[in-house]
TrEMBL record, chains A, B:
SUPFAM superfamilies, per database record: lambda repressor-like DNA-binding domains (SSF47413), Periplasmic binding protein-like I (SSF53822)
Record protein name field: LacI family DNA-binding transcriptional regulator
Pfam families according to UniProt: LacI, Peripla_BP_3
Signal peptide bounds: none
Keywords recorded for this protein, A-Z: DNA-binding, Transcription, Transcription regulation
Domain HTH lacI-type: 2-56
Lineage: superkingdom: Bacteria
Length: 317, 317
DNA sequence: CGAAGTTGATTAATCGTTAAATCAAGTGGG
DNA sequence: CCCACTTGATTTAACGATTAATCAACTTCG
């Protein structure tokens, strides 16, 4: 490996001068800078980030902790984060917080031990990660607004509910996956708050809820609003089994606009998060915190977008 | 931050002794080791991995490069790799090789610059990553057997084809996503080689292929074998639109056993990769290479498993 | 009892880079 | 012509660990 010292002795100058020339920091003459730069180029010099990090205390690496990569939305977030980080010359070290909240904190510690400058966390449902060794940005939970970047889940719920309400439904079922998830709670309360007074709605949860949906439709519900596309797909199976046609007999909506939403039959009405914007803002806010600055967008949620497809229509009378 | 030196002066011993006591390397008395260990514990000492890495030349970090996280199988691989790595005390730095093969090589370089000890690569379709600075393990492409860990895609194709053939189909359509992908080619050639002589089969590709499937069924095909679950879902939409019932009129199979396979309607017959085993072996082989050893399993593929669900049945006659 | 070996610790160098302090030489001004 | 200032480079120390070499103090044994 070719080091700064090699270049130095090579040109006959001190290591400090080489460092200064390459980083443009100290005082080096134009001419010397040029000579050093070109020699570095020739030798194929690549700075040793470990040594640099040891000295400066900054690794240029962010830790990313996700609860469960099987949720298809998270990989998209991870990818966008990775792109946003790379654009700023930062790397991303991943940690998996499967299992308990304790495990989550363990992973955070491990990442800090590895020298990350900051942490990006999509928290386990219902947990609030703590770490004071380095700055920390939380993604996608609206609960803690200090350092959180999140889609406006409640707003998204409202969009869906207004759509359903606008096209004439008056008796709807809301289905959530897990009441522990604050995200899902936000989505549901958004739905509820946006529905006009005259609409009858009730909330079901989890596997039991999925099993009960057909019953509710039989009892008069004309629309099923779920908190995830995957849940919607499962409901669709149940409805098909029970011989209820979507959207003719019952309208169905998802959440998150995953790839399957445009590919299932019928295609699914849902709301989309602007994942790219979330990732970008998360990195922006975190790097600002690392620099010790406050970021103006901290705590503001990002709007969601209604995507109307073929799984919703007027209720038949 | 509490360093080794702090502990040293604290106890009144040299830094080297502390290092030896903590790592268990040099010669330190039982008693002194105990004292040092407990003091380190008290102070909450955490070794600085950067400093250690600088000296030893090993960071304990592996680079992971994936082509496209939107493919839902990759996140599962990433997660399993992350778990397998963590179990061995290793970290994973991610890089996204979206775009060209050039980009892929850029990412590899960046990771090496950051000091990774080795690289795990799921290559872009049709590319073969090169990097001689550090050991490199390739995942899921059978093309280059030296340092490759892969499911037995051809074997998986054979499993599916044999199943279809066993239950009586004699006229099948094979549908691939992209002929550039060697994985998909392997799957398809596996299907073809396992089908009995008397079976008529033809291969379609991509969007045009999806559009043509219904036509082929109308012309007498009774089964559609695809190279991915997502593709199968799209085909299912087309078939439904064309009023062909699955599996009554036509059987349909996917590949990879993604979560949607068990949740769509009808549930999808497919083949599963043992992702955990692949991840584990990949890490195992890579760490062996890093230690400079050869691993006995290098180049052997891992068997796939047939998962029969409701999308396949006897052809109606 | 002296040579050789063992034990438990210390010293000093090093990994590659950065940064503050220092220094030599040239420049300009009064 | 001398003092103050600027420029361009060097020295030196440090970041936090590891490791080879060294050393003092005991053991052991012929």
């Amino acid at each position: 490996m070719v080091s700064i010292k090699k270049i130095a002795t090579d040109i006959g100058v001190s290591a400090a001068t080489v460092s200064n020339a390459l980083t443009g920091k100290g005082r080096v003459s134009e001419e010397m800078t040029a000579r050093i730069r070109s020699r570095a180029q020739e030798l194929g010099y690549r700075p040793n980030n470990l040594a640099r990090a040891l000295k400066t205390g900054q690794t240029g690496i962010l830790g990313l902790v996700m609860p469960d990569l099987t949720n298809p939305l998270f990989p998209r977030i991870a990818q966008m984060l990775s792109i946003a980080a790379e654009r700023r010359g930062l790397g991303i070290l991943i940690g998996d917080s499967r299992g308990s909240a304790d495990e989550q904190n363990e992973v955070l510690k491990r990442l800090v031990d590895r020298g990350v400058d900051g942490l990006l966390v999509v928290p386990q449902k219902g947990t609030s990660p703590e770490m004071n060794a380095v700055p920390l940005a939380i993604i996608n939970t609206a609960s803690d607004p200090r350092n959180t970047v999140s889609a406006d889940h409640a707003g998204g719920g409202a969009l869906i509910a207004r759509h359903i309400s606008d096209i004439g439904h008056r008796n709807v079922v809301i289905l959530g996956g897990d009441p522990v998830s604050e995200v899902q709670q936000d989505r549901i309360s958004g739905m509820q708050s946006a529905m006009r007074q005259e609409i009858r709605s009730s909330v079901l949860w989890g596997d039991a809820g999925v099993a009960e949906v057909a019953e509710r439709v039989r009892a008069g519900a004309t629309a099923v609003l779920t908190t995830s596309d995957l849940l919607a797909l499962r409901v669709h199976s149940e409805l098909t089994r029970a011989q209820f046609s979507v959207p003719r007999r019952v309208s169905l909506t998802g959440f998150d606009n995953m790839s399957l939403a445009s590919v299932m039959h019928p295609t699914l009405t849902t709301v989309a998060q602007d994942v790219e914007a979330i990732a970008d803002r998360a990195i922006e806010i975190l790097t600002a915190m690392i620099r010790g600055q406050a970021h103006p967008d901290t705590g503001r949620t990002l709007p969601m977008r209604l995507v109307v497809r073929n799984s919703t229509s007027n209720p038949e009378i």
